[in-house]
Amino acid sequence: MTHAETPLVDLRCEAHTYPDGTVGMHDVEFSVFPGEIVALVGGNGAGKSTLLEHLNATLVPDDGELVVGGTPISEDNKTRARKEVGFVFQDADTQLVAPTVLDDVMFGLQNYGVPTDEAKQRAREALETVEAGHLEDRIPHYLSGGEKRLVGLAGVLVLEPSVVVLDEPLAGLDPERSRLVAERVQKIHADGISVVLSTHDLDFAAEVADRVCVMTDGNVVGGGTPSEVFYDDALLAEANLHPPSAVRVARDAGLASAQPVTEAELVSLLTEVDNLDATRTPAPDGRGRD
Ligand SMILES: Nc1ncnc2c1ncn2[C@@H]1O[C@H](COP(=O)(O)OP(=O)(O)OP(=O)(O)O)[C@@H](O)[C@H]1O
């Protein structure tokens, strides 16, 4: 895939070594461009969270560089990376710190010195964006997993980042909540924010992503559009991944040449094939003859 634009985030990481000596990631070059949703996929321990946490300088490479909005990030200007790249953690509890949801969403703004009235108004707007306005007086700790995820997302959106990073946004959510979070991801993308997320759910990746990057053993081993990645058997095998269900059904139905990756694309193809068959198969009264 080629990108004419300047990346919003540009990471080069020769290696990231954790304090116990484990190499979490190595030889990675990863960029985020305006207007895209990128899904990172890979098995447990492949390095997805490690990569994501480098995008807002939560982690820094042993050797390498992070450039955000054209500015190289160092110890002195890490706050710039934190502001431009909002991070929604997998464990929402680590992110929710205040006594009420509204206070929580206001927290970041107040840290940046925004006056209370303005912070309150912007926090309410951010909660509305994720349709969680009704939760503003609740105690964050007692929210359901999906509600926490949405409030965490509001707390990030309120700071108006250019990129939102979500680590395993569907982890632990039921299908209904997963759908809700997937819709919100598409909505913030439609509002002009780039999104990078990690997921084990390849159906979800196929549904929302413009670009999919495959990780294994701390390295990005391939990437491309969902069709390019999910029909690349060798790449999926290397990362020990199974293709999304639409890809498996398309193969069984002999429709792989059209490379559908989502359920909707598959249904539309199957409908086309059905219609074609109906025009070819003569009905007993002779209707439907070619
Ligand atoms: N704090 C840490 N200290 C030591 N090793 C770590 C730490 N965090 C992650 N690792 C190691 O780094 C490697 C990459 O882990 P990472 O969490 O980035 O993978 P992941 O793809 O996000 O995995 P999962 O899908 O299981 O969440 C693994 O070998 C992991 O054990």
From TrEMBL:
Pfam family, one: ABC_tran
Main location, first listed in the record: membrane
Residue ranges occupied by any ABC transporter domain in the UniProt entry: 6-242
Signal peptide range: none
SMART domains documented for this protein: AAA
Location within or outside the cell: Cell membrane
Highest taxon above the source species: Archaea
Protein name (Swiss-Prot/TrEMBL): Cobalt ABC transporter
Record InterPro entries: AAA+_ATPase, ABC_transporter-like_ATP-bd, ABC_transporter-like_CS, ABC_transpr_CbiO/EcfA_su, ECF_ABC_transporter_ATP-bd, P-loop_NTPase
Membrane-topology descriptor: Peripheral membrane protein
Keyword entries, A-Z: ATP-binding, Cell membrane, Membrane, Nucleotide-binding, Translocase, Transport
Biological role stated in the UniProt entry: Probably part of an ABC transporter complex. Responsible for energy coupling to the transport system.
One Gene Ontology cellular component: ATP-binding cassette (ABC) transporter complex
Alphabetized GO MF terms: ATP binding; ATP hydrolysis activity; ATPase-coupled transmembrane transporter activity
Annotated family: Belongs to the ABC transporter superfamily.
